[in-house]
Amino acid sequence: MRNFLIAITTIGALSISCSDKLAPVKPNALKPIAITEPAPHDTDDPAIWIHPTDASKSLIIGTDKDTEGGLYVYNLEGKIVNKVLGIKRPNNVDVAYGLILNGKKTDIAVTTEREMNRIRIFSLPDMKPIDNGGIPVFEGEVERDPMGVSLYTRPSDKSIFAIVGRKSGPTDTYLWQYKLSDGGSGNVKAEIIRKFGKYSGKKEIEAIAVDNELGYIYYSDEQSGMRKYVADPDAKNNNELAFFGQKDFKEDNEGIAIYKKTATTGYILVSNQQDNTFNVYPREGANGNPNEYPLLAVIPTSTVECDGADVTNINLGPKYPNGMFVAMSNGMTFHFYDWNQIQELIDKKK
């Protein structure tokens, strides 16, 4: 069941009102099933954690992106049930399952701590730190400022890797990939094993998502398009596989979420941030080409200036029988949608 989780990563804040510079919410926008209690400062990116025995007890972890920020944990009703404070500008967050620590499988949440140039790692669901206070990233680089993060679990051996992006950087090794493992004493260590990824230089790269089953990394090169790479570093393939959606966005292409209908099919959803919509692409590609991504549908949501999103196909109970889509919005909140709402709109476009 967990292999059908979406990793995604990516970024922002929410409000039902908006300034004159922002596009208004569209009249036909989907209405969320729930809106979370607001965080204090500036929400950016969510990640869904699936409870191992009772999916109705699953949680959403969201970043509050501020110098005095933190991670906020919500139940499926949108209530804050836990939080970790004192993280200096946590940008993006992702979750993974079954990292071996002290001989035991441990679910983890990983977030970037931008102002400290490191990633933070917490056990789930208790949100206890297991990183010795933080793990530095982009060491030796002039431009660090970590922003995006997504976790890849390799199917063959269940090794877990963190792919980290930054505010700015080189045009050809913008992303760094770290292998996470037991560092002793119940803490995680991270080993840099790969540097890859093109960057247009137009803006920044926050949103990163990984498809574990198909073995791909997707990331939003803002104001440029979505880029696709092989996820497994042992493949020794740093070639760009696809660069799509280049003319499909009003301004910024941001948060990415991958909905998995089967092990090999589904949808890639990307926030069209200034349009208050999500663009939908075929996960499996098109016309027999796994690297061809035509625009299938445009989904209007009630989110404003959405940075980050996540999705799962797991049945979370009567309100979310075919999964949940979570998206950040201005107003320091996250919106929860029943996947069936989105599927219905996609089907109408076919």
Automatic annotation (TrEMBL):
InterPro entries (UniProt xref): 6-blade_b-propeller_TolB-like, B-propeller_Phytase
Record keywords, A-Z: Hydrolase
Q: Does the keyword Nucleotide-binding apply?
A: no
What GO molecular functions are on record for this protein? inositol hexakisphosphate 3-phosphatase activity
Q: Where is the BPP domain?
A: 20-346
Q: Name one Pfam family in it.
A: Phytase
Specify the enzyme's EC class, one word.
hydrolase
**Do the record's keywords include Hydrolase?**
yes
Which EC number(s) are documented for this chain? 3.1.3.8
Q: What is the protein named?
A: 3-phytase
Organism phylogeny: Bacteria, Pseudomonadati, Bacteroidota, Flavobacteriia, Flavobacteriales
